Amino acid sequence: MRYRLFGPTGLRVSELFLGAMRFQSVAQARPIVDRYADAGGNMIDTADAYGASEDIVGEVLAGRRDRFVLASKYTLSRDSTDINATGNHRKNLRLALESSLRRLRTDYLDVYWVHYWERHTPIEETLRALDDAVRAGQILYAGISDAPAWLVARGNTLAEWRDWSGFAGLQVPYSLLQRDIERELLPMAEAFGMTVAAWAPLAHGKLSKPAGPEADDHERAVLDAVQQVAKELDVTPSQVALAWTRVHSRAVHPLVGANSPEQLADNLAAIDLDLPPDAVRRLESATAFELGFPHSFITPDLLDPDRIEGRSIWNQTA
Predict the structure, then answer these.
(1) Distance between CA atoms of residues 285 and 303, nearest Å
(2) Is the pTM for the entire model greater than 0.70?
């Protein structure tokens, strides 16, 4: 396992993150966490909305919590009978954080994610509340999940101006079946030096097995390409799909969930897999992904010196 810095901070995190959403019991989770730790993994990600996950993680990490980079999230409803037990506002942040700390049996979180953008709370309020939690020592770094690029960029710019703790990490879905972040979110994260935690890198398991009868034409093309590359390289489809998520940016860390130590071991092997350029080309050709406007409009030839000096399209007259 190799390590990278978490966003623009000095915190070291492993190349592959372990998601705890699938944890159902301590007996199930402990050998998975042990296998991950033995491989050098140190980043465990959970959320207050993941059922008993926080309680399970808290018990599994008892006595060794400080050796891990522990992350949780807030935003989703904690109590369906309380209108303020959801959202990104200060009240929910404070109560959700205190509850997560109790369940995780710790007095601080290394990373605290805003779970998603809920459109009602001003980003200034959320950032200031996160900064207060950083200054109080309850969290060390802040991150944001499932939000538009313009909002994250605005938030980090405000944080720079006002000397608040900004978002060091971004958590978003990314896989061969969902490449949307390449349009705006991934370039934005790279511009701010943020770490990108890629959730659902196996598209909820679809990329780990052959296409079934329920697959549409697009899914079938991608899944068939993954299967073919895996066979040629003598690796598993999961390893191919996970390795691909790291092709375009060093900022990306696949966030994997596992039901067993054996499944995790298969995923961990993807770290050492370097996909040949031809394999990458065939995989991406199958996705039929297009960046769209403005990327398809702002082409490199518009910056050609010959066009800028005297023959630029901007200087042409009818």
Answers:
(1) 27
(2) yes
